[in-house]
């Protein structure tokens, strides 16, 4: 053998000796020579690490040359692994790996050596000897020391890949160390001799005892690391040691050190995620309780949250067992049916063959395990940490919602009455008794001598608000249960009492809870209705119970006003609308009237003439909600008789009157008396004075509701009215016309407002559609129909008299409106006039004669506006006023013309007969006024307005052609009528009645007037059959 230039000769002799020992080891192992093997092993261990014996230590410490004991200790702790030591250790690893089955008690020596090696590897003073002097210092440090240590550490780990055969010796070593230590461990009785022989007890019992009896954190964490390693690698092979393991892990949950709890929880995660299927049956319940203990510990909140998630994993395992048991039971019953054998319900076969095939399945009480999980979640649901209790609540309801179909009815009853309802009551109590004091966030530092705290959101800055968040989660979970399992829940024997408990809780949450809680309770009701009504799962009693809650909420605090209360009222309104939409088939007349009464309470509570929203040009939130649900309340075919109450209710809001549904109600009277006593009388926002026949003087519009609300309500009401059946429309049409007319009359006091414009457009729609209604569509009761139509025409005449005469074509404000606004107003006025003439007067079929006379007189009064002004002021009249007056005049000519007379000839003829006499009088007045003004001015020119009006009259007279009946209505001598009838030349008969006036106009100074008069005279001559003689 050649010596290495950097190593002494003795090194190679020692290495050679080690190799020889290796061959002896293998020989002894093959021959099973135990004693020689042990002797060789002892010799080999001496070569591994240079540890001074006790005599050497004592001599070093007591030598006179030593300066201080500390120096001696440093020298002692400085350990150098020579190449000889490294080679010896490698040989020891090889021997232990290959001959592990025959080492026996010699394993103690091996383990002591390995323990010394472990201390050496982790010692800051340990190093390996340099193998070459030529290698640089850095190279020696990195390559020599750490590479050898890495190799030795790897070998040390690989040695325990096959540990089962040596754990008896390991356990004995642990027990020996514990028994020799001055510690109360001696008082513990370990395990009986027979159990000690067991592999599990030999390995794990010392770990459990070591953790529970030693207060050193490092020792405890070491024991937990070993346990985690065993569970990860061999957990599925364990069986007898589970009680000890769970007891140990349960104790870890009560530790105060965060690292210890975290390490113990890692083992719990391994068990819950991977080991539930292999754990003995009797330990499953304890496993769930241990997980709950980690959820309840207060050291690490993340562990608590993860523990709640592990409980969800446990429910998956449990439900799989429940499903498997159900399948097994079903199969067994099928076999019984085939064999003709009967057993009692609930029995499951427990044959010897089945138990052998799956010994655990027949023994697991999955119901008990399921309730164990719920018991833990119920306790965590009352935890003082919001995150933990919220996670527990989510897990509990997620479990029920996910696996509810697999639970029996008895399990459902236990879940609800033992866990869910008590949790509701307990959490509600804790929320009501929790502190309302505002919290300050964590102190971040100081600024200007004052502490600076982390900001907490206002929705979570008190204990009560955080408890409210938990109640919101509870209500959300209940909503999910009602949505998914309501038909199943109805089958429970205690369903009625449970339903009453739930309704009481929801009612209390809405009335006494915070905004978030109240909204969650309302959402629960909405979810219940919307998810079950379309499926036909609800009876009318459930709908009534929901309606009762809404009604009670609105009756309890009708005058309570705040942003939170408004939001709650909005949700109640949406709930009302959704309730009716989803459960229409369950509503009868009484329920519908109750629904309208609840809506009226809501609208009444929103009355406030001083709302700032209205002043800013927006509608209050509650009123917006009202406007959203009103279109949803259209009665169904089965509730057709409810159209009239609905429309009358809406009209009361337009007219500022008390609802007919509550006019005789005791509650409303009491509320009104209280309001008067408190000085909260309703005030008028906008008042319209109606002048004309059939009106009642001053009328109030939108009393207390606000003009903006009425503006939005008018189109909604009109749309509902037009959708109503004809017979219902017939009875409600007079009130609708009256209400629209009052809104239109607001133009005089507020010409720039929008209400009158919206109402005028809606009035045009209603009156046009109503005039075209056929008698047959309005039912068989003709007397009621006639009375209703007479009232309708009276109201129509009232509206036109007030609006056209009082508002249209007039200067109503001293403020000059914008050009666009003025143009829009004029266009709307002309539209009203067109509908009045073309759609009402020309198409009417049943208007009474006295009403027709009022309507035509109304048109005549508007047409006379320009002609009635004196010559001094007529020139100051705005153009839009004169244009409207001329439009009315032209409409009167159109009414008398026979060009558009078709199928409705009798009705049109009646209108023409009423109109012609009024028209001829108006023409005579206008032409006479022109003559008078011309005479008064002399040579001065007439105002253009007067000239244009006269020219228009003359032109329209020339174009007008009358039918025979209209001609007979003229105020001319009878002989002329007879002559015209005989000659069939009645078309220009109206010119004969104005012939005296024409004869005076032939000398007018205005050329256009003279020309038009000449044309008219020629038409008269032609009508009389007169011709020039030459």
UniProtKB/TrEMBL annotation:
This is Protein MON2 homolog. Residues 276-540, 790-972 form the Mon2 C-terminal domain. It comes from Aegilops tauschii subsp. strangulata. It holds the Pfam family Sec7-like_HDS. Residues 192-268 form the Mon2/Sec7/BIG1-like HDS domain. InterPro entries: ARM-type_fold, Mon2/Sec7/BIG1-like_HDS, Mon2_C.
